[in-house]
Write a structure and sequence with these properties.
CATH architecture of the largest domain in chain A: 3-Layer(aba) Sandwich
Structural class of chain A: alpha/beta
Order of helices and strands of chain A: EHHEHEHEHEHEHHH
Oligomer: homooctamer
Largest sheet of chain A: 6 strands, parallel
Number of helices of chain A: 9
Strand order of the largest sheet of chain A: 3-2-1-4-5-6
Strand content of chain A: 5-15%
Number of domains of chain A: 2
Protein name (chains A, B, C, D, E, F, G, H): Nicotinamidase-like amidase
CATH topology of the largest domain in chain A: Rossmann fold
Shape of chain A: globular
Helix content of chain A: 40-55%
CATH superfamily of the largest domain in chain A: Isochorismatase-like
Radius of gyration of chain A: 18 Å
InterPro entries (chains A, B, C, D, E, F, G, H): Hydrolase_YcaC-like, Isochorismatase-like_dom, Isochorismatase-like_sf, YcaC
Pfam families (chains A, B, C, D, E, F, G, H): Isochorismatase
Organism (chains A, B, C, D, E, F, G, H): Methylomicrobium album BG8
Amino acid sequence: MNAKYKKLNKDDAALLLVDHQSGLISLVQDFSPSDFKNNVIALADIGKFFQLPTILTTSFDEGPNGPLVPEILERFPDAPFIHRPGQINAWDNEDFVKAVKATGRRQLIIAGVVTDVCVAFPTLSALEEGYDVFVVTDASGTFNLTTQQSAWNRMSQAGAQLVNWFAVACELQRDWRNDMEGLATLLSNHLPNYRNLMTSYSRLQQARNK
Amino acid sequence: MNAKYKKLNKDDAALLLVDHQSGLISLVQDFSPSDFKNNVIALADIGKFFQLPTILTTSFDEGPNGPLVPEILERFPDAPFIHRPGQINAWDNEDFVKAVKATGRRQLIIAGVVTDVCVAFPTLSALEEGYDVFVVTDASGTFNLTTQQSAWNRMSQAGAQLVNWFAVACELQRDWRNDMEGLATLLSNHLPNYRNLMTSYSRLQQARNK
Amino acid sequence: MNAKYKKLNKDDAALLLVDHQSGLISLVQDFSPSDFKNNVIALADIGKFFQLPTILTTSFDEGPNGPLVPEILERFPDAPFIHRPGQINAWDNEDFVKAVKATGRRQLIIAGVVTDVCVAFPTLSALEEGYDVFVVTDASGTFNLTTQQSAWNRMSQAGAQLVNWFAVACELQRDWRNDMEGLATLLSNHLPNYRNLMTSYSRLQQARNK
Amino acid sequence: MNAKYKKLNKDDAALLLVDHQSGLISLVQDFSPSDFKNNVIALADIGKFFQLPTILTTSFDEGPNGPLVPEILERFPDAPFIHRPGQINAWDNEDFVKAVKATGRRQLIIAGVVTDVCVAFPTLSALEEGYDVFVVTDASGTFNLTTQQSAWNRMSQAGAQLVNWFAVACELQRDWRNDMEGLATLLSNHLPNYRNLMTSYSRLQQARNK
Amino acid sequence: MNAKYKKLNKDDAALLLVDHQSGLISLVQDFSPSDFKNNVIALADIGKFFQLPTILTTSFDEGPNGPLVPEILERFPDAPFIHRPGQINAWDNEDFVKAVKATGRRQLIIAGVVTDVCVAFPTLSALEEGYDVFVVTDASGTFNLTTQQSAWNRMSQAGAQLVNWFAVACELQRDWRNDMEGLATLLSNHLPNYRNLMTSYSRLQQARNK
Amino acid sequence: MNAKYKKLNKDDAALLLVDHQSGLISLVQDFSPSDFKNNVIALADIGKFFQLPTILTTSFDEGPNGPLVPEILERFPDAPFIHRPGQINAWDNEDFVKAVKATGRRQLIIAGVVTDVCVAFPTLSALEEGYDVFVVTDASGTFNLTTQQSAWNRMSQAGAQLVNWFAVACELQRDWRNDMEGLATLLSNHLPNYRNLMTSYSRLQQARNK
Amino acid sequence: MNAKYKKLNKDDAALLLVDHQSGLISLVQDFSPSDFKNNVIALADIGKFFQLPTILTTSFDEGPNGPLVPEILERFPDAPFIHRPGQINAWDNEDFVKAVKATGRRQLIIAGVVTDVCVAFPTLSALEEGYDVFVVTDASGTFNLTTQQSAWNRMSQAGAQLVNWFAVACELQRDWRNDMEGLATLLSNHLPNYRNLMTSYSRLQQARNK
Amino acid sequence: MNAKYKKLNKDDAALLLVDHQSGLISLVQDFSPSDFKNNVIALADIGKFFQLPTILTTSFDEGPNGPLVPEILERFPDAPFIHRPGQINAWDNEDFVKAVKATGRRQLIIAGVVTDVCVAFPTLSALEEGYDVFVVTDASGTFNLTTQQSAWNRMSQAGAQLVNWFAVACELQRDWRNDMEGLATLLSNHLPNYRNLMTSYSRLQQARNK
């Protein structure tokens, strides 16, 4: 018997961005820094584009972990932002869970640093409470591939779906016609080769229209 | 309790080729371009050799995504070819689903670009509707290995079988004696080292027969 | 609920070596040739050391696929050796299945070339019939890592256990005291660094005994 | 239906360190020696920091396998230390199982050398007996990636959770406030880049306080 | 006898950007698209920051090669821009060589797509004419690592210096005090982890100043 | 002092294809089989397109090394074809050297299997006799990367230039206008992503002309 | 004509450690953090063991670059420590060059972060002034392999020798008998597998002496 | 001006095997153990086959470094075997240099463990004294690729030629006809895929002769 397709729905999804802090990100070595930055901002842009309820959280952002990176903060100035006083698992923080529940959403899109802790722990907690969890693998970073693969395995075996930001965008969009220009801009900003396709195409369209 | 062997059957399988378009293929970086081209054409040749009902589909082929690559089109000039006006998931397009249902087949062999979207979405939809889905991993391409692995995991966890084109050919053929020369030609065209074995063998056979 | 430990038992296991033919092995690119040769012979030596009922089979060994490599044949001169006239899946060959059943064993240790076809197909067939199947991943080779990973996934999802030859040897042996010298010789022949440990140790023992 | 979150609990977890012997470690090639040493000692320090009941075991430590590495022994001078006379699977040794049961713990954190045997076998045994097993992937080493991946797959499919030492530390700690300085020291000793964050931070704090 | 240090000098260097066109860039597979885009723009920003005479050139930008990517064009609206009518080696185009000579500079910083042709050919030509050539390896892309390594070797053996954009920036700058904020902004825009260091530092400075 | 640019010249270059035999090619593991086949045929097509004097040679093609692959033979039915009776270094065969000299060319483009012997030996011999030698790295294959890198180093240090087939084609062509369609066809046949650019472009041109 | 062997001599060598600062090290991605830390400290220990004149320098250690890592500082409390006020190339700082000259040594062993700038620039400067320069490749880190390889090439082509810390130690030591225990301790502390050899050996020696 | 071809000559070459000791080999991680063992024995077999004067040497073979591996010793029971009492560089040992000089050979083929010390030091010494040195890269092992590449660079820049064992065998042999069966046996023993070619060929020859 095959599985039911648990499909992302922009009216039932919330975005959780966990501990993308300037200090912690310097620990990430399973992506190149430019790739990782691009992926994280792409995911943030998705949240904004689809107007997903978004929740921010950090751990000890006054200390060596550093503050939330400004690229995220400036995209969600009004989002609930939970500064955890000590809980490692964001789900152990009451305010965080309240904020999640306040969204009324049952699908949680989650990414963070580091994958094996800051992402995996709330993922496992939310799964246990019956949420559908979508872990954005390419916007979540950790120490090395061994650690990455272990964390992916643990979350997947518990029922989380592993997705990349591009799949998230496309699954939320469903149909290009819902906002063709908006999606094109989003992809163009974060997929350089897609932008190249569009650049070539536009040039030829211009030539055609002369 | 072990699983039942869901075995490909040439009388119950259909082939779905999704979005192998000239623009989109330039986004693929999890295979070398020559390997990927070889794999995709090998799969198309399999469809032709076993006379599988085959369905073609593209997304915005007038725009930057580009047209279906000619190597596919020329192999299936009479196949249903659904030009989707906007649906990202081919399964969201009624004509596509109708074409699938019209084949009467319950086993779907699917490949496309990019793996995490154009392949994964219809795979998950078809699984939900009870089809057996065979994802051809080496004829499906995407942005990088992180994306590839996430997509494979999601589809596999939902019940899809991950296969490569060579396994598809062999499972459909069952027995070399069903058409020895036909299969040999197929393999020779797409497995250079198998062709080398045949070249060496033929030479020796010729020598023997002198 | 955790799984029962399906543990290899030398009185209930049979060894199936499928299509390790001189032509087909030249297609293997997911291992270096020396590593692969070492692994295959190590597995054959395990079969001999534990006196496992062993079944050999080849596909078209008169043609370009080439004959079974002599290292295997000379270790099992009296084993049932099924030259398949055309069936790709060894399990589709009645003689092969009869030979398997004649062993009376319920645990099948299987390796072969190529992993995605010659190993995967009989593995899936045997699982369906209720056998416990142990796929020896490092004595089975194929075209590339994409193909390898797809095949591993398919077999694992169907219930096969993925093991390496060293784990097979150790699980069959259970306790070094069952035949310390025999196992040590086996490991020494196929694990160069283990042999090095023994060389250093022996030298020191000799010095001590002077 | 999603899985229950089987969460490490410092009052219900025991640590099993299996065969980290000077000879056997020289067989490990899936980690660089420095990374592996760091990971193993980190895990040992976790055991000490959380005062986990810890059990040590070795196989033939008078012979070429070599003695337990001193870094582990000196951290657990009073731990039960089972010198197995021949059993390959530590769980086949009565004293070992007794020692495990004597802890009264139901969560077993296990690491060792080599992953596919010394870790996998007791893991599968313990799972069968209903324990929750947490395999520490980065403190367990083996011959190569093929062997590593096969072993991870086998254990994961049987119900073990794959974790890395950092995730173990964080899941046991739950909240930084339980012992902020203790955890910080642990991380600082084994995550060079985390130490770097702390070094930079301290310098700036000192400057501030001048 | 050691070599003289041929050091980049902002008063003697010119920047040559060759064929960074939207079509050609889609052929690049020795960098991830995000890394490559970041590197190319970083180099362009260096040209602007140090006010280097900069020359742009493209090959058939009306055809499938596509136009120069807009990120470059908008940074150098007034730079000489040679649209080559057919010469593959930019140095074979008189206007290009005239533009180079018009700068009066003897140090040429060059990057382009693809490395083995569009970069290597003018590099070898310029070396022959006695220029010092600095090939920016990470802002030049090609088909694969074999191609990249061959091209690097050919240029290096002929006397070119292989440098990365960060080394170019630092060698031109000589001393941070020449424009501390300018260089910091440049690095911050293109080295995400350097930006993280600055983010953490600024936060702590702010805290200090409260 | 910089090097003179030793530039390929279609009127001074000859092509030497050494031991691309069906048996020997099965030893190649530093390229995927499809990539290698594509590269070798691309180089042969270059020879034909530029009408380079071409010399074929094989070693023991009646034995296990196998015959020259038919793709090469059919492109050069009239080329001198030296079947060496035993000399490993083609340059030790008088007929081969005579054939080279008969071309009157001073630039030798060479590729073959295996790189470290069949390519390296005649390369070193020809260099010694004052020829300019261009080793086509991606149309020459060998056992593994260690072997490849050693051979590249040895040849490069002796004065050979390392080039890839695409660079050879472009350096011989000099200017697209010499035969735009011919070069485009050559590239289109062997660079799948370049073909994709052309496919997209043609489609848009057609649309424009409607 | 072969090269003279420029051999490290403990009476003619000085050690330069450049910019191993807590912030800058977090930019290093061409080594795992544990490997890099181990290599850097090993090199520092070499400096101490052979009592090499050692010079420390940092760049802006009050700012985001962070202070020199304490492991280095505590090993050389009395070494000249040049806090550069802005010069990127340490050799542009008069105090640094004076300190180098004050050692009277003509062989410079250099390592630092990042390789392409903080190591390469003073290396090229020192070579120009006639020093023999030994770049310690594994104690110098940078952004990625492209950057690393470019920097190695540039320095090597200018006459620097690329060495690893182990080679440095052995070349300075010349003969184990100069201080057997000292060297053994050094190696044991930084080569975990060498320590394992010693652990096994000691155990056997102890057993022998009983 | 191109280089003279310094070609191996079996009447002018000697083989130096340095420190292939059971303990030291366990430090090698730049080859898989099976590949490395195969390469080392292949080189030893070459020495025997071509009756090259061969010199063995070890460092502290009574201690943790361990004895020379028996596979080498048994092939050269009568070779000069220098047990160095402490010199790290074999060339610093008078007996070793005397033994080299006693051969009267000017070409030195050298391999050993570890590459960066035990191979590099005598290589650099011998080059300085005017010998032609051939470093067998695949029969020399070290800690990791960084170390390997540094050592290769240093030796190559000083004038050593980097070769692999297969190239050594072929260059010494010159012509298959000098001893066809002997060379075939050598290759068959150490190149599994070459052996496969021969197995397939023999089978077909047998069939032909029936």
